[in-house]
Specification:
single chain, mainly alpha, 0% strand
């Protein structure tokens, strides 16, 4: 019995977890699920901004960057990054943001530059190395394969290096 009461031992199930431990685990999984849904929703909005602007710059009126797919992708990612930072800071990771918006934005930007390089590398390989230059090929490589790889990298980066404040701490007052 290891010094526990019969009731304590009877309540232990699920690998020795107590009901309290199971509730905490369930709460953490629920909180993670909610966070991932919010992250996905913010990401979906940023995706629409990114893909829409990319295609507008490449194929829209005036073909502003029609022959410059890499430049178009960099511009579209930069705008989408600002949209995503606002959504993630004030909604997804609101309880974990730090007191310094400036620090967060700089680190967020650096992580997004790395994420953008992942997407741009996928586009570069497809467009220039493999010679796949159609609109569909550019979108699949940059906004399909590149997006999936960059999104996974960004989520881990945001959790590890950007939104590192203590959950539930007062986030409203800090240095910028």
């Amino acid at each position: 019995m290891n010094g526990g009461t019969v009731l304590d031992e009877a309540e232990r199930v699920d690998g020795g977890a107590t009901p309290r431990t199971r509730r905490l685990r369930t709460h953490r999984l629920y909180a993670l699920a909610v966070e991932l849904v919010k992250f996905g929703f913010v990401g979906a909005i940023a995706f629409v901004v990114d893909v829409g602007l990319f295609n507008l710059l490449r194929f829209g009126p005036g073909h502003l960057l029609g022959e410059r797919p890499i430049t178009a992708k960099i511009v579209s990612v930069a705008v989408a990054t600002l949209v995503a930072w606002l959504g993630n800071r004030y909604w997804t990771f609101t309880d974990q943001r730090t007191g310094s918006r400036a620090r967060e934005l700089v680190v967020y930007g650096l992580i997004n530059v790395a994420g953008m390089l992942i997407a741009v590398a996928c586009l570069w390989v497809s467009h220039y190395l493999l010679g796949r230059t159609s609109a569909l090929a550019d979108n699949v490589s940059a906004n399909g394969v590149g997006l999936v790889l960059a999104t996974a990298f960004r989520y881990v980066g945001y959790k590890r290096w950007v939104f590192t404040g203590a959950p539930g701490a007062d986030q409203g007052h800090g240095s910028d």
